[in-house]
Design goal:
This protein is an alpha+beta fold. It has 5 helices and 8 strands, in the order E-H-E-E-E-E-H-E-E-H-E-H-H. The protein has a single domain, classed as Pnp Oxidase, Chain A (Roll), CATH 2.30.110.10.
Length: about 180
């Protein structure tokens, strides 16, 4: 394991090139559920600076990450290398949820794919406190064929208006009852 002072330009390029990463969050309550979510799709992750990253967050079946960040801000992003040199990078930090109605949303939105707009729920902005690299010797080597288009197609079919009700009814609270979007 190696702790780095910051995200270098070389590491930033590697992070952005990864087709998939995972987020980990947890509530403060010891009996609450720890959440790990897979993230992907080209153009939805950005390195904003040596100690700041962000990703586009889309409507989905749950709102755990949002609820946990609103409660305590703790988040870890993990990037495993599925091809090339075996490597795992973890970014530990404090995150916050930037909603489309927030003043800084549109400036942050410029860092991401311009065509992917339907169904975007928020931008998760992370101030990185620790950059850690470790071997990925046990991570399987896999070939990335392509991003799935199912989420984009599903959200385009629903249309933007459908997500207003979705936020209120399905993303209002976490599975532990913490407030998310409601």
């Amino acid at each position: 394991m190696k702790v780095l002072e910051q995200i270098s330009d070389k590491l930033a390029a590697w992070l952005v090139a990864q087709p998939m990463f995972f987020t980990g969050t947890a509530p403060l309550s010891a009996d609450g559920h720890v959440n790990v979510s897979p993230k992907g799709m080209a153009g939805t992750f950005a390195v904003l600076g040596p100690l700041q990253v962000a990703y586009l967050d889309y409507y989905g079946s749950g709102s755990e990450t949002i609820a946990h960040l609103r409660e305590n801000g703790r988040i870890t992003l993990m990037f495993p290398a599925f091809d090339g040199r075996p490597n795992i990078v973890r970014l530990y930090g404090q995150g916050r949820v930037v909603l489309p109605a927030d003043p800084d949303f549109h400036a942050l939105r410029g860092y991401f794919d311009k065509d992917r707009t339907v169904g975007q729920r928020s931008i998760v902005l992370v101030d990185v406190e620790r950059v850690q690299e470790s071997c990925g010797y046990a991570v399987p080597e896999m070939v990335h064929v392509t991003d799935r288009t199912v989420l984009d197609l599903h959200q385009q079919k629903k249309g933007a208006a459908a997500f207003i009700d979705y936020a209120r009814t399905k993303n209002a609270r976490s599975i532990d009852g913490l407030p998310a979007l409601g």
